[in-house]
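Please fill in the sequence for the structure shown.

STRUCTURE ENCODING:
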């Protein structure tokens, strides 16, 4: 039976999940659209809760993804689909999935780990872009320290192009992250505007380490600043004193990658 009303309880629940971080936290569910992202979530063993399909919009890629799922899809009209989907490009499938836990204690590190951390970064697009960078640069994990919002914000998922599902992520508090670095003997580099900061091109990233970046408005919290073993700052040749946090994170992550080759 096709769902034709936006007032249907399942549709209203999906809309609430899409728009509310609080609802996602309380239910442990999130809404996912985009055949590529859904396929990547499934490959990373995310559990499907519900599937909504608009047959007239269903793309060939989405149709193939649908065949890999055991759940019986619920057919919805184009009008209803527009209520639960946020992207301009529609491929006719929206899935509600079970979120995973992201505890710092659950991270598995390599013998010479590199962690990329961000503190207090609010923009979900920046978080997603950093996750995409972390995936490309082979970062062991991304730590979201005192970061508002949540991992499963639709804009974070989209900016990450689905790498949010494959990159190990930990959500933690400031003191917890600092303690974790000490317990695992990680040299903590802090990206900061500081007259004594070292150029990242002169820093030694071949050691087990973590790099933490603050938000663009306030930078690192004073306690985090004090906890860093070394402060680093990208050289700036123009009138701006810093770059966008996701751009900075990308440059630093690939400098670590370069040094370790």
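FILLED IN BY: designer on duty
SEQUENCE:
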């Amino acid at each position: 039976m096709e769902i034709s009303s936006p007032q249907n309880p399942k549709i209203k629940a999906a809309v609430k999940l899409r728009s509310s971080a609080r609802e996602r936290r309380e239910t442990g569910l999130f809404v996912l659209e985009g055949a590529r992202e859904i396929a990547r979530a499934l490959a990373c063993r995310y559990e499907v809760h519900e599937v909504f399909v608009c047959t007239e919009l269903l793309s060939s890629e989405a149709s193939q993804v649908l065949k890999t799922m055991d759940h019986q899809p619920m057919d919805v009209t184009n009008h209803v689909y527009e209520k639960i989907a946020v992207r301009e490009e529609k491929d006719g499938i929206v899935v509600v999935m079970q979120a995973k836990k992201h505890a710092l204690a659950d991270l598995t590190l390599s013998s010479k780990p590199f962690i990329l951390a961000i503190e207090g970064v609010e923009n979900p697009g920046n978080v997603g872009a950093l996750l995409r960078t972390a995936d490309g640069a082979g970062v062991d994990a991304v730590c979201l320290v005192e970061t508002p919002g949540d991992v499963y914000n639709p804009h974070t998922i989209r900016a990450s192009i689905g790498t949010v599902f494959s990159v190990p992520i930990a959500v933690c508090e400031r003191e917890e992250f600092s303690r974790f670095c000490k317990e695992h003997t990680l040299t903590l580099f802090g990206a900061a505007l500081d007259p004594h900061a070292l150029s990242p091109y002169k820093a030694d990233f071949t050691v087990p380490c973590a790099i933490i970046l603050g938000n663009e408005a306030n930078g690192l919290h004073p306690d985090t600043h004090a906890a860093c073993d070394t402060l680093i700052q990208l050289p700036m040749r123009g009138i701006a004193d810093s770059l966008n946090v996701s751009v900075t994170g990308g440059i630093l992550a690939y400098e670590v990658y370069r040094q370790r080759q």
